[in-house]
Amino acid sequence: MACDTLSDSEAMIAKIVAFLAEKGVRLTDVSAVELGYPREQGADTLFENAIEWLISENIIRQRALHRTQGGKLHETVAKSCVLTSHGFALLAVPFDKNLSLGAAVRQTAEEGSGFSNAGSFFGGLLGSFTKSVAN
Question: At the top level of its lineage, which domain of life is listed (predicted)?
Fold first, then answer.
């Protein structure tokens, strides 16, 4: 599974955020496997990159990243993750007409594909994150 398109990135980010939003303020472990991806390098690499991006944008916090490599055990787990207050606030930001960013994230996570085909999700996502974090 190649995980290198904009749509793949959107779907991974949406799945991580939706998974953590359901957990509330409880610290929780998350992995690409937990999100429904196969145990393979491409999914793990995209997962790690998405986690790093979400942290750098102050949307989530995590305590550690554990990597297990080799055969069927290949997996990367982000330990003790939680949405930040900014992350929770972003879920309420208007995104597209009557759709909040949180609803767009849930829809993307459930459908397993991003909004890039509509040409607006990542731009809207990045724009909403940047605008909200700047305030």
Answer: Bacteria
